[in-house]
# Entry
Amino acid sequence: MKSSVQAVKGTRDYYPEEMGLRNLLYSTARAVSESFGYQEWDSPFLETLDLYAAKSGEELVKEQAFVFPDRGGDLITLRPELTPSLARMVAQRQRQLVYPLRWWSWGPCWRYERPQKGRTREFFQWNVDLIGVDSPQADAEMIALAASFIRQIGLQPSQVSILVNNRALISSELSRMGVPTEKSKQVFRLIDRRDKMSSESWEAYALELGLNPDQLQGLKNLLADQELWRKSPDLTACFDLIEALGLKDYVRFAPQIVRGLDYYTGTVFEAWDNDGEFRAILGGGRYDNLVAAVGGDPLPAVGFAMGDLVVSLVLKKFKALPPDLGASPAKVLVTVFDESSLHSSFAVAADLRRHGFPTAVYPEVAKLSTQLKYGDRMGFWVILMLGPDELAQDQITIKDLRRGEQQTIPQAELVEQLRYLLPPPA
RNA sequence: GUGGGUGUAGCUCAAUGGCAGAGCACCUGACUGUGGAUCAGGUGGUUGUGGGUUCGACCCCCAUCACCCACCCCA
# Structure
């Protein structure tokens, strides 16, 4: 029934199955990051409020971050994202680090928001950044790394795409249409909302911003122009490299992607499920001003972040999750027949562990059907049985649950048989 | 911060204001050495909580808490 003490609003409990998914995301993020030569870093979960006030949008931080005074009265923030901490750490050692930096991180972040589908107050975020280089090659690598993750986690190009644009390209097109530079920030916001509003209210919003009808039509043409990227040398080079990396199927140009944040300066990208059912799976781009914003010297950078929630929803939707997330980490279960054979069962289990096979042994004497059912439900691959019949002849029975077969063999051949039936020992 | 919805068995959900139910899960047995499948039986409830209306409340009303969805926002 309902427990009297509840979990904190917006948090999740990680039962073994959910922990399996969390670990899958983490291990995949790690594997992909490292395959591109990125190093893991981390920061404190607690930061000063000042760190986030240094960025634009300080009002959002005050309203959406967990902020509380420490005993000395300083305002402490539970980190709502990783990038400001990264910028702080880079600025602190800016002269001693070896560039380009290839850094990745994974960890919990907190935002004080109303929980809803795909959004909790505590979540995990994967962050990847390439710092110190201002080149389309760097942009291409970042997009390719994101695409590699999507492929590695088991999502197909028919299911998920990475949409790429360039803010500098859109800016120059806007000024060519006579949109004043001081309006570009608002127009980016307008573009960002294109798919979130009805076309009538979107056009009304555009005219409200002061666009004339010609400029509005020009903007609509712009957003419909799938070949616009050819006008951008950066995007042209970027797409060419992504093709060389063999990931072109996941990536396409999308002029409506501009990102909501103000600090992006060039290439921007987001990964979406192709039905547009959820929010962006991941998002990022080039941000060449952020390190300077926290007190360092100007340093170009490109990166992206991915929360654990939306990608999990997408994986569930496409049934791309491995079926054994809640299974026992051991593949072998040794049953216990009766009091007199208990010692032998435990000895077999110990011997298998010494040979590198993770092995569980049933922890009490119980009916065999109970033990088999347990083994089945916990996802073991093989169950070992040794009762009076086997023990009398130094034999053991191996039941292969996945094939529904069993055989009785000399105990001396057990390890050899398991090497055949199981993944290689650790 | 704003609006809407839902709270009934472990889970998913039924039940004109009139005996609180089903499916799944679980336990037992059919099957004293064999999981998944089938069949039979069984355990399981202060209907979120507190008030009110009523002869009578899961149902109507008020309050409260929790969760969900959307808006807002998304670093």
Notes: Chain A has two domains: 16-317, 332-421. Residues 332-421 of chain A form a domain with the Rossmann fold fold (CATH 3.40.50.800).
